[in-house]
Task: structure prediction
Amino acid sequence: MLTAEVLRVRQLSASMVGITVSGPELEHFEYQGADQCFRFFFRRPGQDVLRIPTWAHDGWIAQYMLMPASKRPYCRIYTARSFRPESHELDIEFVAHGDSSPASGWALRAEPGDQVGIFDEGVTYNPPADNLPVGGGWQLLVGDESAMPAILSILEGSPSDLRAHVFLEVPHAEDIREVAVPDGVVLHWLPREDDRAIPGRLALETLVAAELPADSPTYSYLA
Ligand SMILES: Cc1cc2nc3c(=O)[nH]c(=O)nc-3n(C[C@H](O)[C@H](O)[C@H](O)COP(=O)(O)OP(=O)(O)OC[C@H]3O[C@@H](n4cnc5c(N)ncnc54)[C@H](O)[C@@H]3O)c2cc1C
Result:
């Protein structure tokens, strides 16, 4: 369990806010890239101090639930978008989906110095390294905007011979990023442009209708 504080806040696109947190305890953050995620603790309105569980194992959940409601912080899951170990800076990308949801609202109001807590949950993206078909096969990566940090990190960390079809749904065309991908990656940006639509549905519908390679993907990541 690590503590840090907000260092920088910047608007990344129409719907995404980038927040960099930093602090000496992040010396112990073991960055693994890809879709590495963590529990993210932040203060509720009215709490002047951030109190987080102290156990560095899964028992933190019991500790958390036993905290009096008035002292218990909010807790959500976020992706380690990038990390600079030399300066202990961790970048997080928040979907700004409104002021009334705790984490989204927190990100929209965040200021340098705000305290946060981090409990590393590790990586789930784990494509096979051997027993691949001739040609190496291909991967399928699908997600909405809350999975965009993970999918962009996966693409950035992938080998240059990666072959993949990527379906990335975002709220608006203004959320589409300039992303350099290997030649074998086909990146389908899918702007939803409908604030009432269920996030992720467009990506799934597009995937179902898509013309994909005849052989099955060697690895699929859907989030
Ligand atoms: C492994 C993992 C990694 C994740 N990484 C990230 C990340 O890097 N960045 C990120 O922004 N999210 C990420 N998420 C998703 C994030 O944890 C949830 O969206 C979280 O619920 C947001 O908390 P909140 O307090 O803002 O909203 P909540 O109070 O938890 O949700 C309230 C309501 O807000 C709405 N809502 C939630 N998310 C969205 C959305 N994306 N678009 C529109 N409406 C929404 C829903 O109606 C929901 O019922 C990740 C989730 C997982 C499981």
